[in-house]
Fold:
Amino acid sequence: MTKKRVSIKDIARLAGVSSPTVSRALQGRGRVSTLTRERITQLANEIGYTPSLVARGLVTQRSYCVGVVVPSFADPFHSQVAQGIEEEARRHQYSIFLANTDVDPARELEIARTFHGRQVDGIIVSSSRVGNRYAAWLQETGIPMVLLNAHVAFDQIHSIYHDDYQGICLVMQHLIARGYRRIAYISNARGVRASVERQRAWFDSMQVAALPPELLVNGPNGRFHGGAIATKQLLAQAQALWQAPPDAICCYNDTMAIGALAELRAQGLKTPTDVAVTGFDDIDVTEFVDPPLTTIRQPRHQMGVQAMQLLLTLIDDRTANGYVPRTTVMLGELVVRSST
Amino acid sequence: MTKKRVSIKDIARLAGVSSPTVSRALQGRGRVSTLTRERITQLANEIGYTPSLVARGLVTQRSYCVGVVVPSFADPFHSQVAQGIEEEARRHQYSIFLANTDVDPARELEIARTFHGRQVDGIIVSSSRVGNRYAAWLQETGIPMVLLNAHVAFDQIHSIYHDDYQGICLVMQHLIARGYRRIAYISNARGVRASVERQRAWFDSMQVAALPPELLVNGPNGRFHGGAIATKQLLAQAQALWQAPPDAICCYNDTMAIGALAELRAQGLKTPTDVAVTGFDDIDVTEFVDPPLTTIRQPRHQMGVQAMQLLLTLIDDRTANGYVPRTTVMLGELVVRSST
DNA sequence: CTGTTAGCGCGTTCAT
DNA sequence: ATGAACGCGCTAACAG
Structure:
């Protein structure tokens, strides 16, 4: 059922020229007489010619494709990052392959291999779970790669991440300044860099303020339910520990915080009067839940754009060698709303 | 900086055989002696060979890629559909190009052309704004195409959509059965099929129940803010009309409904005591807002899976011609929560 | 300015 | 069972 593609050969035959001439005419490079160029251009439009980027990529060794790997599209954080990447990519005639790992390191590596097979010019991985194991593989392929919010940066692997440590420090300073003392933390069980950093920031901030970092619960996942379940456990532990709920709950991210709000509500506790709650990311819905969440606004879209720009630099760097920063740190800002 | 790819020629040289033999050995087709097959397979692993799907696609005329077009990644509805598509695609060794239109029909067509240039085997478009204009273009290219939640179905264009009309009917029956009478509707201004259908269902349901469909507001967009702004207008109009708020607000989707909840709260109105609210889609967060939303659960993930399966059928249909449904209708289910 | 030749990496005939 | 030759659609290097 598929129609045969019209190729430059077809045009060449119709125009009575050779196919390289058509190629030159269409991409505007090389010397072609204005007359034949116009004739060819018009002919191409008439018969509906679309150049095969596959064939072109094979010879130029440049596919104008990049691979993007995220843990899950459904996560509002990652989908906004991806949107930033895609927009910036298209501005540069690039298309993106998108794949989700479902937080499985094995799948992540498998996807990277697939992308290599598809001859992508570069790869962006958001919240990688693999880390070091890329190094050896990359050495072989030489594919430029940018890690977003991952653990580490090696030679050849460039990294962009948000300063999560500082983010939670801002949140904690705010909470402590408001007089909250028994501040519990809900972490995300997944061993990503962000999780480690944020938890450490909570711990250190408590120490610095001479408050005991006594109450910490690992959520089963980083989503709404994870936050609700963790909160249930947390309240039980608080009861055992203090015979009272905590003053505030500092959450790994917004989705978990929203789950926490729901659980507190279910247990008849008012926010922020009984228990304050904070999130992280500033996803769109945080402004519309009850109460609106105090959180850290990460420049998600901008992070995607930045990652793509860095990748493009790396791709072109094959020829023109300039200085490229190994790691870029982005800063978020505290957004105070009525949950604290 | 990019390393040279290792090709089957390299393996052939090392193994002392010809490249076609390597090709046959690696893809397991054609007769090759077990001995050389093993030797070649092992060699391929050792030197880290990854077949070039680009080159393969050029000769087989099958790229094992599909293009996916969505209005916006950031929309939780579309990102879940996309996730379903991607998972089903990968199960069949397919990769997906993902692009977002930002709700711009011109961009949608441009993206489709790009995909054609990339020789995708098929295209899935979610919530297309273009409709009929695809027909002519498709005729030329013959690319199999599946429209998700779009207006129409033509020859060659297959369509999967959710029965939005029935969905809102279920919501309305529920509201009317609960005794709500003055039921207002908030629509999404964008002229997509879903919007038209849902609004019509509200209108008809009111008529059938002998209630005047008096209060309708178009939101500026389908997101949280859009719902909040529309609700503000709506309450003002209700005041002018009835000197009272409506009994219930039926919203185009969940995000707008969540915006509505926030605005009602801001105006000191209780849900559902003062004003009931309903959504549509059953996105993840609906269960965790206050109050949890009554809504219609669309099988988002399943719709993505189904679309991909249909597309695969169409792709293979080039050779084996069987019966393929032109349109598939999916049914959602009413989920009753405490917002009504 | 244009045509000829060559090759990107692979699969698919045909021979042998 | 294997190798030689060819082509997918395109661009690059040279001719002329």
About this structure: Residues 5, 7-9, 19-20, 23-24, 27, 30, 51-52, 54-60 of chain A lie near DNA strand D (CB under 10 Å from a C1').
